[in-house]
Amino acid sequence: MEYEVIVVGALETNCYLVSCSETQECAVVDPAAEADKIFALIAKKELKPVVILNTHGHIDHIGANRDMKEKFGIPLRIHSLDGHMLGNEQQSELSFFLQAKSSPPADSFFKDSEKIRVGNSSLQVLHTPGHSPGSVSFIADTFVLSGDTLFCGGVGRTDLPGGNWKEMENSLKNKILTLPEEMVVLPGHGPSTSVGQEKNTNPFI
Question: Which of 5, 160, 170, 189 has fewest C-beta within 10 Å?
Fold first, then answer.
């Protein structure tokens, strides 16, 4: 699998286009805002979106869900424990600042360890709660999209509604950090890193 990253919105969220190099089919992961910028990259790379995937339900990761669905007519998926956040009125109060639109409901929910087909490749769902109850990561052969669970030199906040530090610790130590050390980590914000680098240098781990 291949990926492209585009930074969008006031909180500089990383939106990823994860694609099959053979078919050009792609998953749009965390379309957060600025849909036109995402559309332009899709067109430039001649990709064929087949699914929208949210790592979690916070407004700074879902703000262009509606635009993606309306343009491409593709399913939207999230973990069931974060499903209620889509269209949440309290989150909508932040939408203007974050250049976000309210999200339509999910078409279906992830199951832990499920494999999501993207062309001739797949992404495996890894339930990694802590930042939110329904936070997930997506594992490919050489990289993992960690959402707001693991960052370069940091970890996700757990002081927001639904956050839980004990769950975060478990997700980090018993799930993400058990992956191969050479695996690239693609976080929801900021630069990429690797599993090995975070094991050795992350002050929260």
Answer: 160
- Which residue ranges form the domains of the chain, and what is each CATH number? 2-201 (3.60.15.10)
- CB distance 29 to 5 below 8 Å: no
Strand 143-147 versus strand 184-187 pairing type: parallel
pLDDT reported for residue 87 = 75
Residue identified by tokens 């802590």 is: 130
Whole-number pLDDT of residue 10: 87
Q: How far is CA 189 from the centre of its chain?
A: 10
pLDDT, position 91? 54
Q: Are 100 and 94 in contact (CB under 8 A)?
A: yes
Mean pLDDT for back-to-back runs of 10 residues, the chain (205 residues): 95 97 98 96 98 96 95 98 80 59 92 96 98 98 98 96 96 97 98 98 94
